[in-house]
Amino acid sequence: MPKLRVYDSKEEAAAAAAEFILGKLDEALQDARRATLAVSGGSTPKLMFEAMARREFEWPKLQLFFVDERPVPPGHPESNFSMADAALCQPVGLEAEQVHRIQGELEPPVAAERYADDLVEAFGLDEEAAPRFDVLHLGIGDDAHTASLFPGEPLILDRSGLVGSVYTSVKKSYRVSLLPKVLLNAANTVFLVTGADKAKSLKAVLEGQQDFLAYPAQLVDRQAENVVWFVDTAAVAELDR
Length: 241
Ligand code: 6PG
Description:
The chain has helices at 10-31, 45-53, 80-92, 108-123, 180-183, 199-207, 216-223, and strands at residues 4-7, 35-39, 62-66, 68-69, 99-100, 135-138, 163-168, 173-178, 189-193, 227-232. The chain is of the alpha/beta class. The strands form two sheets. Strands 1-10-9-6-2-3-5 form a seven-stranded parallel beta sheet. The longest helix is centred in the first third of the chain and has 22 residues, at 10-31. It is globular. 45% of the residues are buried. Residues 40-44, 67-68, 80, 139, 141, 146-148 line the site of 6-phosphogluconic acid.
C-alpha cells in the first residue's frame, strides 16, 4: 500500500486512518499482551477518534499516550487529553490506568519531567532508551510543525531527551511535547492531515528542500520507519505528484 493515501473527504481519511491504526494495534497484540498508541491533539483527530470508537477492538489491552499537551487542565477547551477523552476514551471505556495523560495543569517543565518518568515506568526503560510506540499518530500545522515542535525550535535537533517543554511564539504559549528521540522510534507512524489550509505545508514537508528546522514534520517523514500519510484531496492540492 502507498505511503501517501488520498481520500475524497476528511471523514474518509479519518476513517481510513482509524482502521489502519487499529489494524496495526491488532498486529501488535499477536505478540504482546498490550498495544501502545500515542496520539496528537488539535482538531483534525476528533473524526479519527470517533471512527476508532465505532470499531471493535480489545480496548482493555490498549495503553494510550499523548504526543503533546497544552498548558491547561483537563476539561479546558484547549486540552488535547479532554478531546481524546470525550471522543475515544470514554466511549470505549478505557480505565484511568490505561491513559497516560500529560499533566497540563502543572508548570510545563514539571509536566514534562513527570511525563518522561511515566514513559520510563510504563515501558520499563533503561537509561538512554526510548519508548517504542506500536503506533504514533501525528498531525501537521499550516507551518509544518508536528507534535509541538514548531519551526525554529532547537529541540528539533535534540536526540537525547524524551519529553520537553517548549515555548511557541506562534501560539504565544508553552507546550509539553514528545521529542525526536521518541517520535523517530515508533514501530508505525501515521500522519492524518486534511483541509486546504494544510496544502502548502504538506507540499513543503513532502516535496520541499530538506530543512528540519523550517519544516519539523519532515524530520519524522524522512527519518522515522513505516510512515504512512492519510490525507484528503484538499490537503494534496499543491503536490506535484
Ligand atoms: C496540537 C497537536 C498538533 C497538531 C497540529 C494540527 O497540540 O495542536 O498535537 O501537533 O497535530 O497543530 O492541528 P489541527 O488538527 O488542529 O490542524
